[in-house]
Amino acid sequence: MEQVEQLSGVSGILRPFKAYLKEAGLGAGDQVVYYGCPGTCTPFIELLGFAVRDLPVEQVYVPYVDEAAAKAIRPVGNVGMQVSDPAGRVDPKVIVLMGGLAMPGVPVTKEAVRAVVAAHPEAKVVGVCFMQMFAKAGWVDDFDFDLIVDAAIDPVRIWR
Question: Gene3D superfamilies of this UniProt entry (predicted)?
Fold first, then answer.
């Protein structure tokens, strides 16, 4: 996979993600399922979900790879998108793997992620990470990503 574009800012993360989903030909009720770490990935998942809120898809959050714990992602007035009630079903047309899954010390293995992806052979696979996490963890070659959004949060400036 080669880098095609270099964008910046939050819109540089969200616009290509939304464009990809629009081009994927998803219909009403098709699921975009985000797999990520509770707490750290969740805010980014809700931000991605907000960017695509006008598409006719269902959005689902799966903590780590525990599909039995899947939660729906729904709009909340004057807030944005929020992880909410149990999802009821997990049947992704698009799997979104968050980079937190590839970080050292996370209680999920690459093999467990590979198994959940393999359980949905018809699903497209998108990766969203920061600071080249998929490349550093060797996931770029291990997963058949259709799109990777790799953003940088560097430098971080603190003003006091």
Answer: 3.40.50.2300
